[in-house]
Amino acid sequence: MSTSRRLNALSGVRNLLVNCAEAKAGDRLLIAFEHEDFGYFDLDIRHDIAAGARAMGLDVSMIDVGFNAVQCDLPQDLKTHFSLFDVVLFLSRLGDQLRFSEMPPGPKFVVCFALNSQLLNSSFGFADYRAFCRAKDAVDDCILKSRTIGLTCRAGTHVTGSVPQGTTEAKDTTSMRFPMSVFSPVSADLFSGRVALGGFLTGTGSAYYDRYTVEFEGPVFAILEAGQLTGFEGGRADVAAANEHYDQVSSSLGVDRNFVHSWHAGIHPGCGFPWDIRENFERWGGSAFGNPRVLHFHTCGAYAPGEISWNIFDPTIEIDGLRVWEDGTFHLDRLEGGPDILAEYPCAAEIFANPDRNVGLMDIG
Question: How far from chain centre, in Å, is Cα 33?
């Protein structure tokens, strides 16, 4: 390993364990992993984090939590085991599946969205976690104070709406995300319009099911009316495929077919996905969503994250006339407090000045 890569690896591990989990020497860290044979998390990240944690003086243990395609709750035996530790780090889809569920008191729970050491060693992993927590708070605050919000993209998305009256606090996951890469989900209850689906429908990481992804031959739009899917527009075969997919997923999982729960977009310009999206939609959906080029809706189920996501590429998000996102670029400096964040965290400012635009579409030369 080169000196620069080694420094980045150490910075990524320290960013995860210190800036995010606030771990200190003597703390007990449990890495809850799924085996690399599942093809989701790579083996290297588990070993790199464990080695870095031990070098920092942490007491490191590991447990293979496997993979369950439909995981609704944390099993009691794991709850009991987790209670013995100060920090539980999920290098497994279990953490992602339970990110909106109540977690037992005691440990700090962290869900890692860097799927291998390549991502951990990139600016996605080593740019200061605290900068992006503050960026998230700045976006949340702007949205909560807003009157109208518009979502558009060059593919034809045109959605408008507002935050329900009386909303005073953003609701988010019960576990910590690392890296912090999205703002809090915005309720879709008062949003209506046409959503350009980006060429496919795919799952949300809540449950994994047969035909997890459906690709389209041509442009397809989802029609949203006050938080409800009312239909699709596009070629006949594509519309039929979309409806069949919603019928299959909703009936097999027993969820509200047409409920559109919420939406949010990526806030981390260092969140690159340097592989073709079609190689593995499941991995793409569990990582690339943090890039500002991606906005996604949680649909098919009256809960977050739902079971089917709508993905909009290169969104423009206009909040009370202010374009905070413009064609997939997040302008943190346009938000109240944004310039201060960039001044305080040069590592974040560097990423905003030189964003990673690769989100698996293979459109970056």
Answer: 19
